[in-house]
Write a structure and sequence with these properties.
The structure holds two protein chains of two kinds. Chain A is of the alpha/beta class. Chain A contains three helices and four strands; from the N terminus they run ββαβαβα. In chain B, the strands form five sheets. In chain B, strands 14-18-19-17-16-15 form a six-stranded mixed sheet. The chains are: A alpha/beta, B alpha+beta.
Chain lengths: 82, 792
């Protein structure tokens, strides 16, 4: 997995494991909350539920969804604005 | 499922066996010290991990039993129940069951479905024990059940109202057509991440999902306050899969899932609305999504204008133009602040259609989170500080995989065999040197070969030593079974026993240690059954009620000494003599002449048993005899000493390693034989004149002792007389067999060699007179004599 911030957009790829949740939390906390937190999940193969809830709690706006259709459907159900 | 082809399963088997040992140890330690909460935590953790690992595979019976055991331990840990012996029995039985299942899986079989009832019985027994604690909980819970189910139904209806109208219309058609649709609400428990569960993965794998939604169970806290390892998610889904399939999918977490038939009413709730309205709202929502992902990028104004134009068209088309004034206000605000938030808020307020209030909970919580996030940016340093601390306590168990390599035993055995071959090849070099010198007459070459032999010799010896170190196993491998064994037997016999293990770190070759297990079990059973008295009898004899059994190991030179001693009633030599006589094992003459020590050793005679009654533990008259022959096979000795009324001490002396044997090569009847060096006391040449005949036996007096002489040719039934040397002396090996010196007369002595002793196999396996055969350096085969059998 990689988690990095490019131009204020959190970019994740590979598999976000349960251990990555805290890293993710710290990274998101550093992003400016006022401008909205953006995440590019296009490269994600799987997102652990612990990471998902960090993303949800941070209210990230997903700019790109992962390729896996089932994963994208569930992430969309969790992270897309209702 | 084949264990060999699945490395994950292999690892699971190995780790689970380790875990089972740990569990048994902790249970027993806990019995002695029930108040030790650290021990209890440890035990719980191991059981918990075992359950988690088990969940990775499809072993429902095993899982059920472990789960029940975990519940019981959890109740104890939380103080609802007091730990007692019955509980330990139940958990130990459960672990035995798991061990059985592991064995079956290990042999490549799927666990037998016939174990199902046994698993259910075990789980029920465990539940019955923990039931006392839960009974009160359930009583309270029963009243509450009605309320949650109403709340769940309300949640379902609220969630369904959010589903796109097109989908809902499809569902109601499907329902009308008699198809079954399921509503699934999966609320993982807060601690699920610690069990290695990934609820999202579980959700993704859910079959037949038509629509899904993920919401927080409770509104999200501010990001820094969020504990990412407490699951706060609720997964909701509509599925077209069969109910059985969905239940199967959630079979490990049935209590966390609510599965219900999708009610036609809920599916059809929305369609009463104007379908066009629904479509229009869907478009508005899509605009919202597009805006959402735009965020606060520089092209916000353009996007906003485009989105608002689209929304305006939709709203006008469905006759909701009244709301547009508010939208214009929001747009102006948004453009001024260059952010999409005001327009999104408008969409949220007006485009949800008939959305239920509760549904708003998730989005409503959002702005709060974002606001809190502002503060977070500044506080992120504090978060970074806090995070490692949390991590430390939580993940500690994940670390500490030592740098220990687990290797299959067959690989080590192969290596040892190869080194054995190497020893034989090395032994060939001196012969080669001798041939170079004698046959070809090249002395120089002979010397160089000898030098090379020296080098190879050193390396081979180091290799031997290294492989021996690898094979060294601590005696704790055998000892660790005793706490359980002693506890079980003592409970059954109604005796109180304190078991003391000493020198568990003492090491010996794996084969020796493994072969030691059965004899030791016999000895310990005997000590418990015959040696130690009941508490009442001990009190009468003025001893503490709790008997003491010491099993100790230590190393002495190249041998390992195992001692089992108890402070029981000891062995009464007179009783032994009477018994042996009564069974016809000794004759009247021997009865008179036996010393007390010799009498005690009578228990090693085949067919001897002192127990008045045959119990299920010992007393069938095979025990000590079996012990002695097992130890003999290992090249060891047994000695027994006892003081009536004070206790018994049994000592086993075994070689550290059995791989390389030193044998003395001797010649007899024109053939070479090997005699194990560890039995040879001395080599002497006895003048034929000093041999005396006592009855039909020949004896000689050596160092003031009378030593019986036996001729090897005679023992092997060779019809040649033993050859004497030019001074009419007989070459005699003095051997110590079962504590007695015996002179073995041979033709001549040769050298001492290191050989790899191969036991006899096949038809020859029945020849007890030989310990085995070995290959010599010149390619000839050496038969190694087993003096213990030969001289009986």
């Amino acid at each position: 997995m990689t988690i990095e911030v490019n131009d204020g957009v959190l970019t994740c790829s590979g598999t976000l494991t349960v251990e990555d949740a805290e890293v993710l939390q710290a990274q998101l906390a550093q992003l400016d909350g006022g401008a909205g937190r953006h995440a590019d999940l296009a490269g994600c193969e799987h997102v652990h539920a612990a990471c998902l809830q960090v993303l949800m709690a941070a209210g990230v706006r997903v700019t790109a969804w992962p390729a896996g259709s089932a994963l994208a459907a569930w992430l969309g159900a969790a992270l897309a604005p209702a | 499922m084949n264990a060999a082809s699945n490395p994950l399963l292999q690892q699971f088997l190995q780790e689970s066996r380790d875990a089972l040992e740990g569990i048994a140890g902790s249970l027993m330690a806990l019995e002695r010290n029930p108040a030790d909460s650290a021990l209890l935590d440890d035990l719980f953790r191991v059981v918990h991990t075992l359950k988690g690992n088990c969940g990775l595979f499809d072993f429902p019976d095993m899982f059920r039993v472990i789960h029940a055991a975990e519940d019981l331990l959890s109740a104890v840990r939380e103080g609802h129940l007091a730990y007692d012996g019955d509980m330990a029995d139940a958990v130990l039985d459960a672990m035995d069951f798991v061990s059985l299942q592991l064995d079956e899986i290990g042999t490549g079989a799927i666990p037998d479905a016939a174990h199902g009832p046994a698993a259910v019985a075990l789980a029920e027994r465990l539940c019955a024990l923990s039931g006392d604690a839960e009974a009160s909980d359930t009583a309270d819970g029963a009243a509450d059940t009605a309320a949650p189910s109403a709340a769940r139904t309300a949640r379902m209806e609220a969630a369904l109202a959010l589903a796109p109208a097109g989908l809902r219309a499809g569902w109601s058609e499907a329902l009308a057509a008699g198809e079954a649709l399921l509503w699934i609400e999966y609320t993982p428990e807060a601690e699920c991440f610690f069990k290695g569960e990934d609820p999202l993965y579980q959700a993704i794998q859910l079959p037949g999902v038509l629509w899904q939604r993920v919401v927080p169970a409770e509104a999200w806290p501010a990001l820094p306050e969020l504990d990412p390892y407490r699951c706060n998610l609720v997964f909701q889904a509509v599925s077209g899969a069969a109910r059985a399939e969905v239940e199967e999918h959630f079979r490990y977490v049935p209590d966390q899932v609510w599965i219900d038939d999708l009610p036609a009413a809920a599916a059809a709730a929305a369609p009463q609305e104007d379908e066009r309205l629904a479509d229009a709202l869907a478009i508005v929502q899509a605009q919202g999504q597009a805006l959402w992902s735009t965020g606060d990028t520089p092209w916000v104004p353009g996007r906003l204008l485009a989105a608002v134009a689209a929304i305006r068209g939709c709203m006008t088309a469905v006759g909701r133009g009244a709301l547009l004034a508010e939208l214009d206000g929001c747009l102006a605000d948004a453009l001024a602040r260059r952010t999409v938030a005001p327009v999104l808020a408008w969409i949220e307020r007006h485009a949800q259609g008939a959305a239920h209030d509760e549904v708003q909970a998730a989005p409503a919580a959002l702005p709060e989170t974002v606001r809190a996030g502002d503060a977070t940016a500044a506080d992120s340093a504090a978060l970074a500080d806090a995070a490692p601390d949390q991590k430390f306590g939580r993940r500690a168990e994940d670390q500490g995989a030592g740098r220990i390599l687990k290797v299959e035993q067959s690989k080590v055995d192969r290596l040892m065999n190869l080194i054995g071959e190497m020893v034989v090849a090395r032994n060939g070099l001196p012969y080669l040197a001798a041939r170079a010198e004698d046959h070809y007459g090249v002395r120089e070459l002979a010397r160089e070969i000898k030098t090379q032999h020296g080098v190879i010799n050193r390396i081979v010896e180091e290799m031997q030593d290294a492989i021996m170190q690898v094979r060294m196993t601590p005696v704790s491998f055998v000892f660790q079974r005793f706490p359980r064994l002693v506890r079980d037997i003592a409970r059954r016999l109604g005796k109180e026993v304190e078991l003391v293990l000493e020198g568990e770190a003492t090491e010996a070759d794996k084969n020796v240690i493994e072969a030691l297990a059965d004899p030791l079990v016999h000895i310990v059973r005997n000590a418990l059954d015959h040696g130690l008295e009941t508490p009442a009898a001990r009190a009468q004899a003025g001893k503490p009620a709790c008997g003491r059994l010491v099993i100790g190991a230590r190393q002495e030179a190249d041998r390992v000494i195992i001692e089992v001693s108890d402070d029981g009633r000891g062995i009464d030599p007179a009783a032994i003599r009477r018994k042996a006589y009564g069974k016809g094992l000794i004759d009247e003459g021997a009865l008179e002449g036996l010393s007390d020590q010799d009498s005690v050793n009578l228990v090693f005679l085949p067919g001897f048993s002192t127990a008045e009654q045959v119990s299920d533990l010992s007393g069938r008259g095979v025990g000590m005899d079996a012990v002695r022959s097992a130890v003999d096979r290992l090249g060891g000795n047994v000695s027994l000493s006892s003081t009536a009324g004070q206790g018994t001490r049994m000592q086993l002396s075994l070689p550290l390693s059995m791989a390389v044997t030193n044998v003395m090569v001797v010649e007899s009847g024109g053939v070479q034989y090997g005699v194990p060096m560890d039995m040879v006391v001395e080599t002497v040449r006895v003048p034929a004149a000093s041999v005396h005949a006592i009855k039909q036996h020949r004896t000689a007096v050596l160092r003031g002792r009378i030593v019986p002489l036996r001729s090897l040719n005679e023992l092997l039934a060779l019809d040649r007389p033993q050859r004497h040397n030019e001074h009419d002396e007989m070459a005699t090996l003095v051997l110590r067999v079962h504590g007695q010196d015996v002179g073995l007369v041979i033709d001549d002595f040769r050298e001492v060699v290191e050989v790899i002793l191969k036991p006899m196999s096949g038809i020859l396996g029945g020849l007890d007179a030989y310990a085995g055969s070995a290959l010599l350096g010149d390619g000839s085969v050496l038969m190694v004599i087993n003096p213990k059998e030969l001289l009986q």
